[in-house]
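Need C-alpha cells for this chain, all 129 residues.
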Amino acid sequence: MNSWPTWDEWLDALPADQRDRAMALAELFEQRGAHEPQDWARSELSENLAQMARFLILRRLWRDVIGPWMEPDSLQQMEPARRLLANGANPHDVLLVARAGAYDAMVAMVGMLDAGIDWKVAPKVRDGP
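Here are the C-alpha cells for all 129 residues:
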C-alpha cells in the first residue's frame, strides 16, 4: 500500500528554497482561511496547479453565489421551489438541494477553466444557454 509522506517528510525531501516556498505558501493559505492549507500548498507545488487562484475564486463564489441560496427568501424567487414548499417540503432541505446544485456547477466551471478546455470543440449542451 502506497501512502503519501506527511507534510514534514515531504518538506524534508525538498531543497531549501522549495521548502521555504512551500511553508510560505501554506501560511498564505492559512491566512486566507483555507481548510488543510498544507494540502493546498503541496498540491500547488508538486502538481503544478494554480491552487491559490482556484481557492480564491472558489471562496469568492461560495460567498457571493452559494451563500445567498441559504437565505430563506431565496426560495420565493423560484416557482418550482414555491410548489415544493406548498406541497410540504422542508424549506431547509430545498435550500440544501439548491445550494448543492449551485456548488457542483461552480466547482465544475472552475475546473473546466483551469483545465483549458478547447471551447471550439466542446460538445453542445442541451437545454442550456
